Amino acid sequence: MKITILGPAHPYRGGLASIMEFMARTFARRGHTVDIRTFTLQYPALLFPGTKQTVDTPPPSDLAIRRCVNTMWPLNWLRIGHQLRGERPDFILMKYWTPFMAPCFGTIARIARRNGHTKVLCQIDNVEPHEHHFTDRPFNRYYLHSVDGFIYMSEQVHQELAAYTSAPALFSPHPLFENFGERIDRTEACNRLDLNPEEHYALFFGLVRDYKGLDLLLDAWARLKQKDGFVARKLIVAGEFYTAKEPYLKQIADLGLQDDVLLHDRFIPDDEVRYYFSAADCVVQPYKSATQSGVTQIAYQFCTPMIVTDVGGLAEIVPDGRVGYVCAPTIEGVAQAVERIYEGDTLERFRQNCIEERKRFSWEAMCDRIEELYRMVIH
Asked: Burial level of 231, CB count in 10 A (0-12/13-18/19+)?
């Protein structure tokens, strides 16, 4: 088949770009002709909460990536749509994670489909965004009605999708992030991060946004410290703040956690991720809301036990009591889960179970489902 992938890719940073590149490689290995269209402009600087959207590394030599999509320029959407209409790929695979992309993606999709041949498929991360705006619903309607079929990664997203469209939709869990490499020796990882290998570390990883519940985790950590017999541990917070940092710094100071919390407040590049997950005893995701999370798949890649809250689709991916604990999104719930995961041989059991559980999450399986979806929409 002739496949066009449209969404984030090099030089754009982060997990979304990695996902699109992994799928392009997997389809290419199957003998398909694959090209990627990515952005000349993804977000205007005014709307981007981080410090930098792109990386400085050279582009991957094995992928055909064309920077041509400008999310802020309607004439560009028309031009790209007409190009794809003329090129007649069998399907266009889009990544959708925010209604901000809807006007651009929806216009391109509607024009490209007019050739009577090309189908538009979407791997959808979120329908309703974590931070809401009055444009969300009309933007979602505009884009979602332009798509022939969807791949969703959590039941919550499936339910939200059904409120907008009856187009075919198939489930496929988020695959592993194999680009980060494999687990390394813990002492080496600690040395790389200038950590003391004699200490024990829990990890909060990824972009810091209010819905991810770092405040719950800090309150839970303070509560644990007050308990008799609490073994001294450190909490690593590794990721760039996409929200105001000052309230969290004040909370750390008010709770007296300055010596307990290690702030690595920057975007963590791909070649450093393995050090954090190899040094940590466990990963804590105290989210207040969620659909699914790429952090769980990074944890599976490194067989790092997890604590996740029972929100969105997290419990679907992390079997409670097998590779981690699922807890209530409360201070007490998170505190109890952290306390339990350090009991006895729990951490080692969970690490061993991750080896088996992670076999469920492969790029081949994801691409199988996308090809199955394509066969559904052409009949």
From this structure: exposed
Q: In what order do the strands lie in the sheet with 324-327?
A: 261-264, 234-238, 201-205, 282-285, 306-309, 324-327
Rounded Cα distance between 72 and 326, Å, is 40
Identity (one letter) of the amino acid at 84? Answer: L
Query: Which of these, 26, 27, 24, 28, lies nearest to 5 by C-alpha position?
Result: 24
pLDDT in tens, the chain (379 residues): 999 999 999 999 888 899 999 999 999 999 999 999 999 999 888 777 677 888 888 999 999 999 999 999 999 999 999 999 999 999 999 999 999 999 999 999 999 999 999 999 999 999 988 778 889 999 999 999 999 999 999 888 999 999 999 999 999 998 888 888 899 999 999 999 999 999 999 999 998 999 999 999 999 999 998 886 666 689 999 999 989 999 999 999 999 999 999 999 999 998 999 999 999 999 999 999 876 788 999 999 999 999 999 998 889 899 999 999 999 999 999 999 999 999 999 999 999 999 999 988 999 999 999 999 999 999 8
For residue 104, give the H/E element and its range: helix 102-112
- The residue among 325, 336, 267 whose CA lies nearest residue 296 is 325
CA distances from 301 to 178, 191, 358 (A): 7, 21, 7
